[in-house]
Amino acid sequence: MWGFMGGGRGGLPDKFEEQYHCYSAAMADKAHLEQGDKILLPPSAFDILARLQVDYPMLFQLQSPDKGTLTHSGVLEFTAEEGSCVVPFWMMQNLLIEEGAVLSVTNVSLPKANFVKFQAQHVDFLEISNPRAVLEHALRNFSCITKGDVICVPYNSKNYHFEIKEVKPQDAACIIETDCNVDFDAPVGYKEPTSSAPSSGSASAASSGLANLKKQSAYAPPEHRSSNCPSPTPSSLSAGTNRGEGDVEGGASAGGTRIVDGKIIRADEDSQQASSSVVQPPPDLLASKTGATGVQRNAAICVQSPGIDYWALSAGGGARLDGKAPTPLKDKSGAEVDLRKIRAEAAARRAVEQAKATAALPTTGKTIKGEEVKVENNAAVTAAGRPAQRRNKSRVGGKFSKLKNSGGTAFHGGSNQF
Description:
This protein starts with a helix and ends in a 33-residue tail after the last helix. Helix content is about 20%, strand content about 20%. Helix 9 (about 340-360) packs antiparallel against helix 10 (about 375-385). A hairpin with a 2-residue loop joins strand 9 and strand 10 (about 160-170). The model is unreliable at about 1-10, about 225-255 and about 380-385 (pLDDT under 50). The chain is built from ten helices and 16 strands. It has a six-stranded mixed sheet. By secondary structure, it is an alpha+beta fold.
């Protein structure tokens, strides 16, 4: 009979409102709850909610009867012990309650949020490169927000706390599948950078002090110059063509390591450059200014042609790529040089250097076991002077193949004859 008197609802209440003992996520071994605002309710709560006409997603108002504080949350599971509920610890801090406190849970319906303003509780949040993206990613685990709450956002092994300063259209709103504008207030403890402008008296005193300073040159004095850090000197090309002969002689007589025409010239290279034939571009070919037609003053041009030794030893005696007969090499006087003689002299020099290197080798050594072994000079010389054996692996019938003399075939069967 009570079912008919209840208007067909079976005597069930119009809304869900229960009281549970509240416990933190750590006591229930549910640490993942700290990353959002979801709570755990007992299975009996699901039985009641399933018979009611509630809006989804299910949102609840959490209120402490003793402290008079309240907040809002969603539900993750209905797996809590009967008579208790599991709540994130940061929510318990907002509600000012302890473990086992009585908490009133009421089902509510909240509108969609369209504006939220946050305030970081420490200036460390400014060190994040993209704070807006970090906060938006963290809010994916939240169902609703309440004005005045302080939420916890874990990021990069550190917890950042934010106070919700403003929520629209009302103090509590749902943030699931909504287009919400987010704004940030200045963090707690943040100070605006102020630029202190100097007074007129101090500015004039500073200007007068700078005016009395001794003028300094960009080049170090000669007594403080060293080869490790050479001081730049005016180059012959960049200094112009109107210098006197005295300047040219002074520049030529300057010793030590220096920079000329963008190159580092050392003391031991002066004699080599004096004896070598250096090709300088004619003055009429130099550009009048940078970018003008002509050879640029800092251009990388060939300043010295290679000698006979280069062509005889490194360039194959002047061999041509097109296969034609090479042009005979001649010296400065125009006489043809003997390539075999130059190559023999180079081979003799290499042999002398090899002998010196062999003589410098140690005559004793130690094995892996630590035993000292004496190496005879003849054995060392023989090992060092032994020509390297060339081992070529090629296809069958190639230049270095052992089967080349047999006709260039791998087998001698009748299948090779047609």
